Amino acid sequence: MITVIGCDGAPPRPEAAAALAAAGRVVGTRRHLDSMPIPASAERVELKALDQALDTICETQGETQGRVVVLASGDPGFFGIVRAIRARGEQPEVIPAVSSVALAFARLGLDWDDALVVSAHGRDPQRAVAAALAHPKAAILTAPGTARELGAELQAGERTVYVAERLGTPEERIGKLTGADPAEPNVLIAIDECVAGPPSAPRWLAGHTGAPGQWALPEDAFEHRDSMITKAEIRALVLARLGPAPGRTIWDIGAGSGSVAVECARFGAWTVAVEQDPGQCRRIRRNAATYGVYLRVLEGQAPQALIGQPRPDAIFAGGGDNATLAAMIQTSTPDRVVVTLAAVDRVGGVTRLLGELGYRYDGVQLQASRLASLPNGTHRLTAQNPVFVVWGERG
Q: Which residues touch 289 (CB under 8 Å, ≥6 apart)?
C-alpha cells in the first residue's frame, strides 16, 4: 500500500503519524525525512530524480515489509506527486497538508480565489510567465534555480513579486523579491498592486475567468483613427487561427488601434503589440484599459522593437512587407502566423514565404455585406472591402 503524506511544517496529523509508524519504506527529500517521526526499522529513501523515485515507490513496494510512505510538500494532489503515482496504475492513500500556494497567500493576508495558479516545475517556464503576465494576480510554483529569472520577467511586466521560501519551516521567509537569489523558493506571487486593495465582488469561478462572453467586437467598441481597425468579421477568423489562450504569447505587428491585441488578451494570452505611431500606442493602452486586460505595447518598428521579447506562439501581421515578416518568423519561429492583406498581389508572395520557411499555409478572401436600414423600414446590404487572410502552421 502507498500512502502519500503532505508536509507543511506542522506536526503530522494522527492518521499521518499512524501511517508512518506502520511504514517499511519512507521516500522523501532530506528535509522532509528529517522533519517527520520515522521508525528506526523503516528504510529511508531520499527523493532526488522523480523517475527513479517512482520506481522505488511503485515497482518495489511488494518487496517492502509494511507500507510505502511518500513525503511531499503541502498538498501532494495539487501539482504534486499523486498524479505521477496514479499514472503508474497505483491508487495511493493521500493525507494532504496545507498547500504552499494557500500558505503563501495566507502569509500575505490576501484572498486568492481570483489568482491564477501555474507551475514552472518540470514544465515550460515561459508558458507560466505568459499566463501570469496576462493576469493581475498569479502564483507560480518554481523549480530550483528558476525563481530569479522568472521573477525578473514578472517585474519587467510591472508586477510586484513576492517570494515564499521554505514555507512551514523555522527558516520560512516571505517578502518582496530582491536582487538576491532565493535560497529555496516554494512559490512566487505576482500581483498588480491595484488588486491588493479592498476585495471585489464575490467570485463563482477560481483563477482565470475563461473565454469572454463575446468576441469579434464591433469596431465602435474600440477607440480607433480613421477606420484603421481590423473589421469584426476579419477579426473573428484571425482570432480562430491565432488560438489565444492562457500561457500563450502572441505578437501583434503593426497593431494600429490594438483591436486584435486586446481581444487576444481578453482570452488570457500574453500579447505584445508593436506600433510605430505614438498616438496609436496611446489608443492601444486606452483600449486595453477599457476591457481591463494586460498587454505590452512597444513603440517602434519590427523586428528591432521585439529584441529581447519572449518567443511568440503566434504572430499576427496586418499587412507589412515580406522582408519584415520573414525576419520576425526566422528569429522567433512561432507555431502559427496569420497575415491580413488588402491586395491580391501580395497573397502569392506571402504564401511562398510561409512555404519556404516550413509552414503549411492556407487562406481565404473575406468580404462581408452588412445590413443597413432604409428610410421605409426595409434593409439593404452594404459591402465591406474584401480582405485576404493567409495563415501558416509549422509542420
A: none
Does an H or E element contain 273, and which? strand 270-275
Give the separation between CA 90 and CA 135, rounded to whole angstroms. Answer: 36
Look up cell 499523486; give the residue.
82
Give the model's confidence band at 198: pLDDT under 50 very low, under 70 low, under 90 confident, else very high.
low
Task: Determine the Cα–Cα distance for residues 72 and 168; give it in Å rounded to an integer.
Answer: 13
- Model pLDDT, residue 181: 63
CATH number (3.40.190.290, 3.40.50.150, 3.40.50.720, 1.10.1040.50) of 219-394 reads 3.40.50.150
CA distance 212 to 52: 43
For domain 101-196, give the CATH number. 3.30.950.10
pLDDT at 82 over 80: yes
User: Class of 2-98 per CATH?
Assistant: alpha beta
Select from 257, 216, 221 the least CA-distant residue to 234.
Answer: 216
Q: pTM of the predicted model, to two decimals?
A: 0.89
Q: What are phi and psi of 63, to 5 degrees?
A: -85, -5
Residue 63 scores a pLDDT above 80: no
The closest alpha carbon to 134, from 32, 9, 262, belongs to: 262
Q: C-alpha distances in angstroms, 380 versus 80, 117, 370? A: 60, 50, 8
